Amino acid sequence: MRFAHLERLLKKNGWQLIRIKGSHHIFGGEDRPILSIPVHGNKVKGVYVRQVKQAIKALGQHDDEARS
Question: What class does CATH assign to 3-66?
Answer without folding.
Answer: alpha beta
